[in-house]
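Consider the subject:
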Amino acid sequence: MSGRLMIVSTPIGNISDFSKRGACALEETDIIACEDTRVTRKLLALSGRTSTAKLVPYHDHNGATMRPRLLADIGAGKVVALVSDAGTPLISDPGYKLVVGCHDNGFKVTAVPGPSAPLTALTVSGLPSDKFVFAGFLPPNKKACEAAIRDIRDLSMTIIWFETPQRLLKSLTLMTDILGARLAVVARELTKMHEEVIRAPLPELVAQFQERKSLKGEIVILVDGRQNGETIFDEIDVKIMLQKELHRQSLRDAVKVIVERTGLSKRTIYQLALEMSNATPPE
């Protein structure tokens, strides 16, 4: 049999979601390229499967070294299965470059479809699913995160991100500042025992997660796209409006007017007003 690459999807939480075809593929392949070999061994054990395949690590840190080896194996007639720790490979993992290498070398690439956290979250979100964008992980750096959110604010489709528990509240706060009170969903621990899907306007989500003392698990954030008639205000627009209102009334009243007009967060407008009026925050 000629060599080929198989993209094999694995469960995102519930082991029962591992397809019979996927399990058989891992039994019959020569090499399994894993995000983490320990996770894949556990998956095989839990699913009651045995495999004589060689398990090798393939991830962001060793991809440049491992890709030529895997491509050489495929060229020699080996069947290589690519798996991630959870879900469909190539969705926020380094598999893309391996697939490109296969196509460049004329090797066959097939897929065993299965679970995907972004699609699972979309189906339960109650947000429009006819058009959507998956934007991967939000950047950990604040400025980069703000830029990533601004990049999508004009899109009239559902936006999907991955996020970590540690950064969830900060990211939701930035989204509120930039996107206003759009409807959003936080989907956590999908298909697992403690699955949670919370659907509310962004400011309400911020308030809810401010009350959480601790948070664990895999998280997907979904935000409604720009609606017809929705006006997007950039900082220059807001400053011009604020300047006019600050000439007419008190800072507090000016902030209230701009918040109602733009839908942006009170915290953002208040801070901008303080900077513009050169005022000092109250004790």
